[in-house]
């Protein structure tokens, strides 16, 4: 009965499978270089073969945690909260983000958009993946489009995604870390030829921080 109650709370977004939470410097995209508190939620079935947090995929390995506890921890560190995964939209983000906003915190999400958008957001970073495309209206609501470039075809995919976002959305191409030496020169050339795009790097890895 206790387990059933917990699962019901998870389904309602009142508890979430919390993988980790930490205070660090945002390493990617528009807000790179700024301090933020990261909440990494377990659970993802998008299945990117180059994912560097595959341990986040199985939600069952991460303890269901009351959102009150998550919010309490977050407000000790920063007023900017980044919710990531895994794929956070696997779960209902409404209760968590409403609780964070009630504490006057700014809510950011990093998502593939593979599940319907829930929650109240100050910033949406959409990072779409080929093997499970975004659904609903997340393209039009995205503040930032970040496409990971693993091979040359990803430039075509990036353009397919870019035509779906609003004209105010900021466009980023980011090399997948394991092939960065090969892809960075191609990205640089592409951005110079298509200046609507910007280069994003995983600067936290260069800084050797989480």
UniProtKB/TrEMBL annotation:
Gene3D superfamilies assigned to the protein according to its UniProt record, in alphabetical order: Aldolase class I
Short name of any one Pfam family annotated for the protein: Radical_SAM
Binding site for [4Fe-4S] cluster: 44, 48, 51
Reactions catalysed: 6-carboxy-5,6,7,8-tetrahydropterin + H(+) = 7-carboxy-7-carbaguanine + NH4(+)
Pathway(s) per entry: Purine metabolism; 7-cyano-7-deazaguanine biosynthesis
Sites where the protein binds S-adenosyl-L-methionine: 50-52, 86, 127-129
Transmembrane parts of this sequence: none
Record note on cofactor: Binds 1 [4Fe-4S] cluster. The cluster is coordinated with 3 cysteines and an exchangeable S-adenosyl-L-methionine.
EC code: 4.3.99.3
Radical SAM core domain location: 31-210
Subunit structure: Homodimer.
HAMAP family the UniProt entry points to: QueE
Function: Catalyzes the complex heterocyclic radical-mediated conversion of 6-carboxy-5,6,7,8-tetrahydropterin (CPH4) to 7-carboxy-7-deazaguanine (CDG), a step common to the biosynthetic pathways of all 7-deazapurine-containing compounds.
Protein name stated in the entry: 7-carboxy-7-deazaguanine synthase
Organism of origin: Flagellimonas pelagia
